[in-house]
Amino acid sequence: MSRKPVDGHEKARVPPPAHAHERREPLPWRRSKAREEDPDALRRIEAIQSSPSYRESDKDLDFLAEYETRGLRLQLDYLKPELLLERRKSGTEFWSGTKRAASRC
Predict the structure, then answer these.
(1) Domain carrying residue 61
(2) pLDDT class for 105, splitting at 50, 70, 90?
(3) In a 3-state reduction of DSSP, which class is residue 8?
(4) Does residue 28 sit in helix, strand or coil?
(5) pLDDT above 60: residue 1
(6) Using one digit for the tens of pLDDT, what is the confidence trace for 53-66?
(7) Which DSSP string do the residues of 34-72 spell out, in sequence order?
(8) How many domains, the chain?
(9) Phi, psi (degrees; rounded to nearest 5) at 38
(10) What is the pLDDT of residues 20-61, one digit of tens each?
(11) Residue 28 belongs to a domain
């Protein structure tokens, strides 16, 4: 028994979504353009990759030296010795530039 819609029109069937990898034809960005189709592509890619904005932020010394990243640099300055001391696990505590043996309670 089929149901008739209230407004008298049948509901359009919506097809299922396409498979993510199995396709009749590859999507346009899945294959490279021919060099003749876009002769400036290589030059533009090189320009993008050599741009300072393309550098990873943790390797960009100019970016890290900016005023806005000062807080991050200070956090790193505090974190580095803390991690080194944790890894060392020597039982030595540092207090105001002096050191003393850690008490074992």
Answers:
(1) 40-88
(2) very low
(3) coil
(4) helix
(5) no
(6) 899 998 999 999 99
(7) PTTT-TTHHHHHHHHHHSGGGS-GGG-HHHHTSGGGHHH
(8) 1
(9) -145, 80
(10) 788 888 888 887 788 898 899 899 999 999 998 899 998 999
(11) no
62 part of a folded domain: yes
**Is the residue at 4 inside a domain?**
no
| 104, amino acid identity | R
Cα separation of the two ends of the chain: 80
Q: Which two tokens stand for residue 98?
A: 């002096």
Closest CA to 82 of 94, 98, 96, 70: 94
Q: What are phi and psi of 48, to 5 degrees?
A: -65, -45
In whole angstroms, give the CA distance from residue 88 to residue 94: 13
Residue labelled with tokens 């505590």: 93
